[in-house]
Amino acid sequence: MAGRYAPKTVLAHLIQRRNQTYSEIVAEFVELGGTITERHLRRLASGERAGTTPQTRRTLQRMFGKPVEELLSPYQPEPAAQVVPAPAASGRITTGNEMEVLDMAASRARAFALAAQSGLGSEAMEQVYDDVRHAAQAYPQRPLPEILGQLVETQDLVFGLLESRQRPDHHRQLYFLAGVTGGLLAKASHDLGNPHAALTQARTAFLCADNADHHGLRAWVRGLQSLVSYWAGNPHDSVRYAQLGAGYAEQANSTTSVWLPVSEARAWAALGNPEAARHALERAEDAWDSVQNDDLDAMGGLCTFGRNRQLYYAADALAWLPGEVDQAQRYSSQAVDAYTDQNHPEWAFGDAAGSHAAMAITRIASGELDGAADALAPVLTLPTERRINGVVHSARRVHQALRQSGRAEDARELQEEIEAFTRTPMQTYPR
């Protein structure tokens, strides 16, 4: 429990009245989507520190029901007992249970429909396609814990159908769907910080793409392998996979012909090769002239690559290069704007977060530390279930940029918030 001392601020008084330790307050703070260290909280409560970031102010106000200015003001004891807001509840009453029951019923109906046929009919094949399409579209927009179980179940279903006797034309379609689900699970493994499992899933997905003889799917899997390698800190492998997929992308003329060169660009940038990075970005832009969406693009979601993602990748690439600050600022600003509308079909919380991180890095390079904190604030307020591997690594890149800026002491508070944020990635989230 917090010690019974004379509180110096309203915040210290409210913490004392809650009968909680500072570590418990910090844990609740994180649960509400914020990030703060125990040291920083103690300094705020003691009146030693008044500076706070926007996300810290919002979370404190949400926890204690008072403006930050009042929370940090000197505490004046009152004769009447002060009403203290109850601690925020960790659980919420929602209609989630009803939706869960409906999802279970739909799964049972799907399993019955597929089992009731001796061979896969058109209705059953349409159902499998719909399952995979739904997973691809939901993936960029919903927290992984909400969809992972259904994705694993869908892969198991497709593998089971392939292992049973099917018509030759259905076999090819099922291999295509197995490749897509394997690719989605490769991304899931990567998002959970397991590159070994991600590349294992991707190799199987590429085998399925070969059996389906689908150039667009082959190129897409190479793009996933490039992505996994990039975030795993293996940029040479990232370049290699992107280049391996280029021939397939050229034959498919799908949006993979944009994704692969822009993926190659940011790997070259990470290697400190600005000329190769710029050339790859130019090839990505030129590729739009010949793009013709294929049936993989028609799946939507993670299976297609739009201009919004191109802006983010370009910003992420240029943020590595000290000589490209102006271009990086332009691309990151466009990318942040592009991901403002959460109802847009291309919206993806991970890419939105990456765009904000790239903007923060470019602002640090320009000496705008306050602007960098504002740019990163939406990332640091992400709930734990959305702190996927790429998002955590993007935040760490901002921390690295602050260290290398020569003004680390001026940005100490932001660095501490980043450290607190990255200590609770998604894989530690209880579910």
UniProtKB/TrEMBL annotation:
UniProt name for this protein: Tetratricopeptide (TPR) repeat protein
Single annotated GO MF: DNA binding
InterPro entries found in the cross-reference section: Lambda_DNA-bd_dom_sf
Source organism of the structure: Kribbella solani
